Amino acid sequence: MLDKTFDPRSAEPRLYAMWEDSGLFAPKTDGAADAYSIVIPPPNVTGSLHIGHALNNTLQDILARYHRMKGKAVLWLPGTDHAGIATQMVVERQLAAAGNVGRRDMGREAFVDKVWEWKAESGGTIVRQLRRLGASCDWSRERFTLDEGLNAAVRKVFVQLYKDGLIYRDKRLVNWDPHFQTAISDLEVEQKEVDGAYWHFAYPLADGVTYEHPVAFDEDGKATEFETRDYIVVATTRPETMLGDTGVAVHPGDERYADLVGKFVTLPIVGRRIPIVADDYADPTKGSGAVKITPAHDFNDFQVGKRAGLASLNIMDAYGRITAVDTPDVPVEYEGMDRFAARKAIAALAEEQGWLKEIEKTRHMVPHGDRSGVVIEPWLTDQWYVDAHTLAQPALKAVEQGDTVFEPKSYEKIYFEWLRNIEPWCISRQLWWGHRIPAWYGPNGEIYVAETEEDAREQALSDYDSEVPLTQDEDVLDTWFSSALWPFSTMGWPEKTEDLERFYPTSDLVTAADIIFFWVARMMMMGLHFMDEVPFRRVIINGLVRDEKGQKMSKSKGNVIDPLGIIDELGADPLRFTMAILSGTRDIKLSKQRIEGYRNFGTKLWNAARFAQMNEAKRVEGFDPAGVEQTINRWIRGELTKAERQVSEAIEGGRFDDAASALYRFVWNVFCDWYLELAKPVFNGADEAAKAETRAMTAWTLDQTLKLMHPVMPFITEELWDKLADEGAARSEATLIGAAWPELPDSFIDASAETEIGWLVDLVTEIRQLKAEMNVPPSAKPPLAFVSPDAATADRIARHRDLILTLGRVSELTTADAAPEGAVTFVSGGATAALSLAGIIDLAAERTRLGKEIAALDSDIGHFGKKLGNPNFVARAAPEVVEEQREKLAEAEAGKSRLQAALARLDAVG
Question: pTM of the entire structure?
Fold first, then answer.
């Protein structure tokens, strides 16, 4: 006999070990099987499983398990990312905590060896955690973005792109992290709102130039008073950058400054003569309408500088300290000063000398390094770049013509927008952990790009008569560079392997929207360039998991849900089912209570299996569900067939929420709540033939249900499959993970049985809802009468009398020419029925109760409606708050409608 409850703590490790030992995670070697492949978005090797991983990998596992059961050769290829800056930071902190020397004192080789030691000891944490989630990856093919095979692929790609003119060196602005002294990607930049100020500086006009500046205006905005000025006012939140100003920009249509375009200002402190230029970037409606231009320290200014031909002067070093290397006119007292100290010093000097006109306090967004936590500095430096614009064109075309599709399709717009406006991709990082750039420098600065140092030396011989010392570039490649090769490098490229032949392009990619730019688009570029084929046929974008109020999860808010804690407490299956059923929205509102609710769903399935076992529902050798005769058995066969269609179509379409919803409806509402209830009288009856058929049908239906449920809730279904193995005839499939997906014929759907049982289900549902609306005590059994039923209805009443009495909890079932006095009428299946409530409830008191509840809901509707009708509230409140109010309004309106219908029924009683 099954245990009373499922124990995930003991079952999950045992079942996962069995799966892994079975070899079924690896793809079938049968060459006739269709291939299905998916590569895991490699989590950082430093990482631990968070709720986003739980969502993403649950959806991938559903696909892998489903297609495996469909008989395909499934490759779900796992691996981890070396996570350059994150891993280097972890090891540096460990060294510091242990009192060891820093990496620069250790030297590069010794430090990298130390990182590899850390990786061997601690780098497998997230892989172990993915196993706890139930991820059925082929671990025998696990890859690491710094393993030797991927290292060779990265070097080959870099060299080829360099030869193709698609990789080059350039001096451009980057996001610079002064703490780590490296360029970082946009994804590693976190915008934080902080207190700051706009310092309004008066830059003196050069050459004695003055102009008339408007200071008063009429009601039409026309200037009425002017003052003569020999200066122009600019505002900045970063006064320290003025040391690198090379221009002032005004809008070409701004009449105030029209005569100043082409004139010059004398930059305070340094005395530099810089031009006033016209550029659309300047906004006449903001501040003074004039903006200082520092091309070497602001991304927008860099573009203005390019258009206007302004010099780019770097006034900071790699640590964010003022330097006069590019700008000898910077006074010596600022040399080596921290940027924030320089900010204070310059603002103080401006006030002292009288060119500080105003300090305007503000709250504004400032970029910070997500790892270091320091303010990021736009910094002009020499880096390696990929010509992303050229590589983007085939990637755009592939999606435009449908070679790769996005689900949901709306995400294609994000993909197109980014690729059509793409900038050069900075791929060099000033770190030690990562793929070292395969470029060597000769004595005179010559660059030799090669896969090996030996090849580089061969190249150098074309410039020198004998061997000369070469120095390899100190930088490593952006982590996203190696990740961009993931779909084909993990399958053995550049070698022509069987895996590449069989599984590339991959079938699906499941990932998050925030890395469409950083990863998806770049994989498309690289896959098309090196494989001449898209890397995946479909991209399924999963949503962002938020808390139950729609707020982003964060440790500071205390609203983080730890998936490992959930698995410890509730098991993996409830978490997985919750992830699936909520996956259909961009913002997934998650609470622990939701997960607990779906644990109850698993318990419902377990209890159904216990019920079947207690009623001797066993598999029967040679049983054919096509031949069942009992109406309830023909009905459940059809319902199961429809559920299989719905689940299959939903998973195939990447609609995991629809698949989970279909499973929930079938298992809970159809199989458990109705079929097993309808089967009870048969099990307890005297008709042995009906009993035997229903037992066999229950066992067969339960087996098929376990198969349908397995991709979403693999542990509890595999445990039931195993524990029920001896219940009747032997199965041909020893494990559920290796079982075949049900493929049920259309002929299993029986229209007459569906109509018959549908009539009964609708009737009982109507009775139950009516009793609930009327506040009928659960113990009460009112009599039910059908009013002048037709012959077909009378026959059904006769056939199902006992079930109606039992399931509807009514005391008697009769027919009448008119509704009895004190009865509430309703229509079900085209027939009028009357439920006698006189003497069971106080009709007058019930009318009063319903009236009060309707009035309370009216008040709520007015309150929510007033809020939502306020444009200021809708515009200013957080989106999740507005959505919550809309949901509450909809709930109140629906509740009012139900209560009004109940009141109308009572009024009809008289």
Answer: 0.86
